[in-house]
Amino acid sequence: RGRTVPAGDAATLLPSTRVLLKRREVAEVELELQSQREEFRQRMERLALRREQLARREEEQRDVILKYDAFLKAVAARRERARAVAQGAEAACRRRELEGLLQHRERLARRLRSLRRFGDYLRDALSSMGQFQDVPAMLVHFGVLAEARAVLAQEAEAGQERLAQGRARLQRYQEEMSTEILNTNNELAQLHTRLEAACQDVLQWESNWAHVQSTVTQKTLLLGQIKLAVLNLFQLCTAWLRIPMDVALEDTEAQLDMLLLCMRGLADICATSMHPPRHRGARLSWSQE
User: Fold this and answer.
1) What domain count does the chain have?
2) Which candidate among 29, 95, 101, 148 keeps its CA 20 to 30 Å from the CA of 131?
3) Is residue 259 a part of any domain in this protein?
4) What's the rounded Cα separation, in Å, for the pair 60 and 224?
5) Cα distance between residue 94 and residue 166, in whole Å
6) CB–CB of 196/72 below 8 Å?
7) Taking a C-beta distance cutoff of 8 angstroms, is the pair 280, 12 a contact?
8) Which of residues 78, 109, 131 is at a domain's end?
9) DSSP per residue over the chain, as a string?
10) Residue 12: inside a domain, yes or no?
11) Which of 65, 97, 131 is the last residue of a domain?
C-alpha cells in the first residue's frame, strides 16, 4: 500500500498531490475488488459443480424408483401366475371328479339296461307258460323283480344326487374363484394407484427440497458477500485512518458501527477542508480528535 499522509499534513498539500493520493487509494480499492471478484467466480464454479452432483443424485434416485416399480410388477406377476396355476389345478381336480361321477352314472345306466333284458325274458317266459305254477311262485317272482327295481332306482337316485352335488361344488368353486380374481384385480389397481401417488409425492418433495437448498445457498452467498464487503470497508477505513482494529473479524455489527463513525469523521474532515478556520492554529486533524 502507498504511504498514508496524516490528516493535518493533507490539508497543506497541493490539489494535484491530493488527487494523486486519491487515485492511488482508488487503485488499491480496485485491486481489492478484483481479488474479491475472482474469489466470487471460484465460489460460483464450486456451486455449479455442486448443482451437477445434486442433479446426478436425483437421476440415480429416479432410477432406483423405476427399478423398485419393476420389481413390484414382477412380484405381482409371479404371484398372479402362481395363483392361476393353483386355480387351474383345483379346476382340473373338480373336472376329474365330475368325469368320475358321469362315468359312474353311465355304469348305472348300463346296469339298468342289462336288468331290463331279464325283465323282458321273464315276461316272455310267463306268456309262453300262460300262468304261474302256484301263488307262492308268482309272489316270489314279483317280489324279486320289485326288490331289483327298488335297488336300481335307489342307485340311480344316489348317482343323480352325487352328480348334482358335484355340479354344485364346481359352480360354487367357480364363483369363489371369480370373486377372488375380482378382489385381486381391485387390490392390484389400488396398489398401483398408491404407488403412483407415492412417486408423485417423492417428486414433489424432491422439488421442494431442491428449491429450499437453492434459496438457502443464495441467502448464504448474499450474507457472505455482505459480511465480506463490510469487513473490507472496515479494514480500508481503519488502515487509512490509522485506527486500532480491536474488533473481531466475525463481528459484523461492530464493524458497521465503526464504519459509521469513520464516515462521520470523514464528513467532518471534508467539511473542515471546504470551510477552513481563519486561524491556522485552530485546525485539528480527525485522527487527533
Assistant:
1) 2
2) 148
3) yes
4) 32
5) 8
6) no
7) no
8) 131
9) -PPPPPHHHHTTS-HHHHHHHHHHHHHHHHHHHHHHHHHHHHHHHHHHHHHHHHHHHHHHHHHHHHHHHHHHHHHHHHHHHHHHHHHHHHHHHHHHHHHHHHHHHHHHHHHHHHHHHHHHHHHHHHHHH-S-S-HHHHHHHHHHHHHHHHHHHHHHHHHHHHHHHHHHHHHHHHHHHHHHHHHHHHHHHHHHHHHHHHHHHHHHHHHHHHHHHHHHHHHHHHHHHHHHHHHHHHHHHHHHTT----S-TT-HHHHHHHHHHHHHHHHHHHHHHHS--SSGGG---TTT-
10) no
11) 131
Cell numbers given for 187: 387390490
| Averaged pLDDT, groups of 10, the chain, 289 residues long | 50 76 87 90 91 90 87 88 87 88 88 72 60 54 78 87 88 86 86 84 82 84 84 79 72 82 78 60 39
Residue 258 belongs to domain spanning? 235-272
pTM above threshold 0.70: no
Q: Do you know the residue count of the chain?
A: 289
Cβ neighbors of 269 (< 8 A, separation 6 or more) are 7, 286
